[in-house]
Amino acid sequence: MNQPLLAIHDISFSNGKQTILEHISLTLEAGHFLGIVGPNGAGKSTLINLIAGLQQPDQGHIDLFGQCLKRFNRRRLLKKVGFLHQLHDQQPRLPMRVCDVVLMGLPGYANPLTSAGKHRQRILQALRHTDMEHAFDADYRNLSGGQRQRVRLARALVHQPKLLLLDEPSAALDSKRQEKLYALLRRLCDEQGTAIIMVDHDIAAISSHVDSVACLNRHIHHHARKGESIPDHIWQSMYGEHIQLMAHDAACIGCAPATGHSHD
């Protein structure tokens, strides 16, 4: 069995007032596409931030590429990680070309000798993945919300990471663009062996693309793989008794067969 790219060992995290995550453990191997779903405030973004080294767990530890993630090695290990944080609707104030935004995804981008022109082909390739290569020299401020999101995704992809962390990557994308995004991520897993963790709110939309779904609300309630369904009581324990249940296709990961119920 290959060594996992990511191993999370019994981590817990609090913000000083309340426990956000409790006793989280999971592993992720090369080429595996994991979707994480859960209600608002469940700790999904916090978990992504912990893996990215932006926050430190109160207990437990995280192994990246076989090494325990620490402050002293964080920068070196994260060179192999692409990270798309949650989109916030903020209007950029400073002029910046799209190519320079994507350039920020390359290690050492702040070096005065590093320029978009020097890495033009790599930047174009990343933008091509997200259908934004035509905007190479465009002003980032003039793009729509969906276009900015696609540029930000290109920034996460530009250095061809071994592990990709995505927090609500489909935000601001229409349904057609969302489907193209999920198909792209599936290809990265299958063709390049990229491991992906994606936080998303819509299990039905991602179910035909991911390899497994983890249900998170402070702790992992259930981890469903292909061919498995998530019992109704799991959804109810995560979202409350008022959760609306309806039938889905039996092929949907986490969804019950047509004779049962699942979350929409």
Report on the structure:
This protein has a six-stranded mixed beta sheet with strand order 6-7-8-3-9-10, sandwiched between helices. Residues 245-251 and 256-264 have low confidence and may be disordered. The chain has eight helices and twelve strands. It has one domain (6-263): 3-Layer(aba) Sandwich (Rossmann fold). With 264 residues, it is of the alpha/beta class.
Sheet having the most strands: 6 strands, mixed
Q: How many domains comprise the coordinates? A: 1
Measured by DSSP, the beta-strand proportion falls in 15-25%
The SSE string, one letter per element, is EEEHEEHEHHHEHEHEEHEE
The span between the termini is 35 Å
Helix percentage? 25-40%
At the first level of CATH, what is the class? Alpha Beta
Give the CATH H-level superfamily: P-loop containing nucleotide triphosphate hydrolases
- Stated plainly, the CATH topology is called Rossmann fold
Structure characteristics:
264 residues; alpha/beta; Rossmann fold; six-stranded mixed beta sheet; 8 helices
Give a concise summary:
By secondary structure, the chain is an alpha/beta fold.
Summarize the topology.
Blueprint: E1 6-14, E2 19-28, E3 33-37, H1 44-51, E4 59-64, E5 67-68, H2 74-77, E6 81-84, H3 98-103, H4 120-129, H5 145-157, E7 163-167, H6 175-192, E8 195-199, H7 203-206, E9 212-217, E10 219-225, H8 232-239, E11 245-246, E12 262-263
Parallel strand pairs: 3-8, 3-9, 6-7, 7-8
Antiparallel strand pairs: 1-2, 1-4, 4-5, 9-10, 11-12
